[in-house]
Amino acid sequence: MPMRLGIDTGGTFTDLVLLGNGEGRVHKVASTPEDPLAAILQGVAELCPEGLEGVEIIHGTTVGTNAFLTRRGARVVLVATQGFEDVLFIGRQTRGELFSLTPRRSPEVLPRERVVGVRERVLADGRVLTPLTAAEIQRIYREVAARHPQAVAVALLHSYVNPEHEVRLGAALASLGVPVSLSSGVLPEFREFERTSATVLNAYLGPVLGRYLEAWRREMPHTPLFIQHSGGGFLPAREAAAWGLATLAHRFAGLVQPLRPRFYPSAFICVNLRLYS
């Protein structure tokens, strides 16, 4: 079994724990929020001066969390079933200040003008009421491209039962050269607000995490890297950028499931983020 180096980046400190061969070593360095990787490289050099041969890294990062909290994620365009473009903005009608005459809303992740409605309709039992035509796919492609996205989220009505329309749109939009998140893959469950929110957030955070992991690969190209996700396990770094949402609450999971074997995020820890409601 290879030695494992656990690295957790926080706002104040970056913590490192090396386990294997019957021993353990710990180290702590000051974090570098503007460039989290700088503190990691410093800590690795100090804890492992002999190098990282035979070591795999398990990393918990707040890069995605910080991007969400500071609203520095990707420029996302959402494709939704026509007539349901406002699902995110209507939300669940929950109010943190029920009797306030001047309620405050959290800054939007996605403005309304970057939502595109598509003419299609799938019923709750999976039957197609309004087919998705080739001409409509071409129109959506042009509409999305005109909004210059850095990532695209596709969340169509009842796609958790029948994802065909989402898959076809995703295949066409992939030629834009930006990441495309499909709700039928991110959170294939009923309830439109929650599924759409999850898909938009996944698209919003994916490019940020992707850039971070690309910088990591340039610095340590030969060291196996796994990213801790919100289900408590680990994702191979080469796949983590496609699951930006999965890293959002990784610290809560890590507290209760330390050193659990790695697995893929078939489910996410649910957190009330009050994005739009």
UniProtKB/TrEMBL annotation:
* Name under which the protein is recorded: Hydantoinase/oxoprolinase N-terminal domain-containing protein
Q: Which GO terms describe its biological process?
A: glutathione metabolic process
InterPro entries linked: Hydant_A_N (IPR008040), Oxoprolinase-like (IPR045079)
Q: PANTHER family of this UniProt entry?
A: 5-OXOPROLINASE RELATED (PTHR11365), HYPOTHETICAL 5-OXOPROLINASE (EUROFUNG)-RELATED (PTHR11365:SF23)
Tell me the superkingdom of the source.
Answer: Bacteria
Give start and end of each Hydantoinase/oxoprolinase N-terminal domain: 4-173
What taxonomic ancestry is recorded? Answer: Bacteria, Pseudomonadati, Thermodesulfobacteriota, Desulfobaccia, Desulfobaccales
User: Where is it found, in Gene Ontology cellular component terms?
Assistant: cytosol
- List the Gene Ontology MF annotations in alphabetical order: 5-oxoprolinase (ATP-hydrolyzing) activity
Q: Which Pfam family, giving just one, matches this sequence?
A: Hydant_A_N
